[in-house]
Amino acid sequence: MTDTGAVGMVRVTGQGAGRRASRLLHGAREARLTGAPSAVVPRAEIDASWDRVMRSGIDPDQSPESELLEADEIEHRRRSTALGELMPLLRAGLASIADAAQQIMVVTDTEGRVLWRQGNTGVLRRAHDICLEEGAAWAEAATGTNAIGTALAARIPVQVHSAEHFIRALHSWTCAAAPVRDPRDGRLIGIVDISGPASTFHPATLALVDSVARLAEGEIRIRHLAEIERLRAVAAPILCRIGGRALAVDVHGRLAAVTGMPPVDRLPLPKSLRPGPVWLPSLGMCRVEPLPGGWLVQVDEGGAPGAPRRVVLDLSRPRALAVHLTGPLGSVKQRLSPRHAELLYALAVHRQGRTASELARDIFGDATRTVTVRAEISRLRRRLAEVLAHRPYRFGDGVEVEVIHPEHGADLLPHSLAPVVTEARGAARAT
Questions:
Q1: Tens digits of pLDDT across the chain (431 residues)
Q2: Kindly report the CA angle at 10 between 5 and 12, in degrees rounded to 5?
Q3: In Å, what is the CA distance from 69 to each residue of 75, 76, 87, 116, 137?
Q4: Do the Cβ atoms of 314 and 321 come closer than 8 Å?
Q5: How far apart are alpha carbons 417 and 339 in whole angstroms?
Q6: Whole-structure pTM value
């Protein structure tokens, strides 16, 4: 099929398009590979994928083979994903259809590693020739444009047919894939795909795969609601006896019951939550106790005496960058990435605070890179919200900050190119 776009541009798809469109698609692909001008381009999602794959250096003539995961690693990944609980539904919704249509169902994790496959026996044998087997890597960075990898990269359902595949060895195949997200937090949990010989292409396959992916998400939602109801039944009599503000939340922070305060959809929880006193950014000082399937969170009405009051940014060893938070409840140490160490150092240097553009200049020497800065600060604040404030970004009022430098100031974050760091190293060398 072809469509005439702007400025005489023709977009072509390999899907059920006949020989002429197939030739045009092959021509568009060869033009992209050689850099030759062409009035014919693939549809937008394939065009964008080809661009990504070419930038990554994938060889169009390479084999789709990849190093397979070991059996124990595959089993570990199966147990670690919610998709494992959904396999009966996926098999019922797709596997039998795939078998009848001479195709196979493939389910991958968020890295594009194949965890399960099932379907037509003959196609399973043929899939071995292109390494479409358990443990194989099908992300774009490994196997070029393909439905699994492109659905992962673009986070949308996508169908890839014949010469739309970047690697030539896949031109005899057709595939359709859709992402599956956890409805509790929107996080991607894997990809569901149907693949088979190019002759088995059907235009309704993508809609089928996407529908089954949505059914899988609905199943997660139904199970989660049932878990919330069980937690609510356990928590309700406990909350009735509690004076003051308290919540019962599941392990994801989703609310099951509340007393003494307005309800919230979700309470952000630290990853390593343990029973006992804890500082939660949205509530202040709290006491946390385990419940079956969740946590009982009681707000300390006496203020926030446990909040960290001292921050020690340890930059003395480049391979052991860390921040120490100290308060009445003790000290907590967190390891830092080099980027987060740069950001905290910039805030320690500028205690009055920095805007996103000022931090972008401090870190990248480019005041326009505010999107990257905001994303990194957001990640930092999830871990250090009790000591970091915003508008402007800064350490909170009343927080004492100390920076431990390396023995020689010129060795401060030695691999960093951030202007705020290189200026400090230069000043140290000059003294």
A1: 545 443 344 455 555 455 666 677 777 777 777 777 776 778 889 989 999 999 888 999 999 999 999 999 999 999 999 999 999 999 988 888 998 899 999 999 999 999 999 999 999 999 999 999 999 999 999 999 999 999 999 999 999 999 999 999 999 999 999 999 998 888 899 999 999 999 999 989 999 999 999 999 999 999 999 999 999 999 999 999 888 899 999 998 999 999 999 898 888 887 778 888 887 766 777 889 999 999 999 988 765 555 567 899 999 988 889 998 876 655 677 889 999 999 999 999 999 999 999 999 999 999 999 999 999 999 888 778 778 888 899 998 888 999 999 988 888 999 999 999 999 998 988 87
A2: 120
A3: 10, 11, 20, 13, 9
A4: yes
A5: 10
A6: 0.64
Say how many residues make up the chain.
431
Are 152 and 181 within 8 A, CB to CB?
A: no
Name residue 431's amino acid.
Answer: T
Helix crossing, 83-90 with 71-80: angle to 10°?
Answer: 90
Residue among 255, 251, 287, 254 at smallest CA distance from 270: 251
Q: Are 395 and 388 within 8 A, CB to CB? A: yes
Closest CA to 117 of 88, 91, 79, 139: 91
| Cα pseudo-dihedral 124, 125, 130, 133, rounded to 10 | 50
Reading the block at residue 127, the tokens are 């899939």
Only one residue has tokens 């309470």, namely 267
CB-based contacts of 348, cutoff 8 Å, min separation 6: 313, 395, 401, 403
Tokens of 312: 């020690």
